[in-house]
Amino acid sequence: MQLMLEFSSSSHLWVLEVFTALWCFVMGSVIGSFLNVVIYRMPLGLNISKPKSRCPVCETPIQTRDNLPILGWLLLRGKCRTCQTPISVRYPIVEALTGLFFLLLYIVLVHSGGQFLPYRPPNRFGGSYQILEGRTWDLIALDVYYSYLFIVLLASAYIQYDGQSIPRRLLIWCFIIGLGAGAFIPELHPVPALISTQSEVSSTAVLLNELYYYGTLHIGVEIETIKTLVWGLLYGVIVGVLFCWPVLFKPQSASPFPPRTSWLLILVGVYLGWQQVVALGFLAAFSLLCFELSSRGNRQFLLRLPASAFIVSILMLQLLFGKYLTILPLHMSNLSYLLVTGFQIVAIPVLTGMSQSIYLKRIPQTKTQDQISIDESRSITF
């Protein structure tokens, strides 16, 4: 009898875990579908809620069954039901990418009990057990906080890829929400601005910290949280300037750094803190240089990715595996930590300067930045 009860309990937990994972993916794909609306309409100054999505060729409104994320495009075989106008494959890609990110972030952040967060010790338990026990409210809030940052930067990268300028209101709202929520909910910044170089923490301190901190949300303004936000904002500005310096003071028609790219790094600094924005800026600059080196001699338009695409890619890795991508002074001396951090900061402008030089040799300066492709402009718009 006891064995049957244990089996029933474990099966219920398994069903809960599967349902929660599916819910995260579906919710992410729905948000990705709305993100397609933002990417297309907001740079043009259009209302993102009205009118209803329709085919630009035959003006037929898209039916609800055809507007399902991912499935709608597959069922229509990538064409308008009425006039057979091609629908760009980029729409289901955005939906699937957003859904996959929501699912992975839930697994590595909430389900694991914070196993991959930098600095913060993980929960003692993981999986559905800790969720049912109410020990993950802080991680759930962090999940929402990080997800919002990701979808804003993802939309910004796609807007720049289309040759459009990132709308100010998209960036300003993200900035205000990041500062506002971050200032009043300390758990949204698990990595403080100043970290001791002690490599060991007493078991008593860990236990007291867990009893006070894990699973709860403390609403209120704390000095340490304000310091973390100020340092993150300051270093976000510094990294943004160093990352975009090739065109910041001398705009050029051909560049992988479109206007307002530096804003994306400022947002990362506000949401993640100064340690992680430094690591992200360095890794994004390094990956951009590797891409440019591998693309020399190739003039295809598809390879003309903006630098924001690499910022978003590294941000995704940072949010999922920040524990392994962020260098913290836990097991090294102050001097060693300063040297490593200084090297990353100095390397950022060097790497982006080299990327800009290679880009100008690969792409003729007489050509302007990419515009929305013919296929996309003729596809169903949202």
From TrEMBL:
One GO cellular component term, please give it: plasma membrane
| Single GO molecular function | aspartic-type endopeptidase activity
The record lists the lineage as: Bacteria, Pseudomonadati, Planctomycetota, Planctomycetia, Planctomycetales
What are the transmembrane regions? 20-40, 139-158, 170-189, 201-221, 228-248, 263-289, 301-322, 334-352
- Which keywords are on file for this protein? Membrane, Transmembrane, Transmembrane helix
Task: Give the record's GO biological process terms.
Answer: signal peptide processing
Enumerate the spans annotated as Prepilin peptidase A24 N-terminal domain.
Answer: 26-107
Which species is this record about? Gimesia algae
Matching InterPro entries: Prepilin_pept_A24_N (IPR010627), Prepilin_peptidase/N-MTase (IPR050882)
What name is this protein filed under?
A: Leader peptidase PppA
A Pfam family recorded for this sequence: A24_N_bact
Q: Which residues form the signal peptide?
A: none
**Origin, by domain of life?**
Bacteria
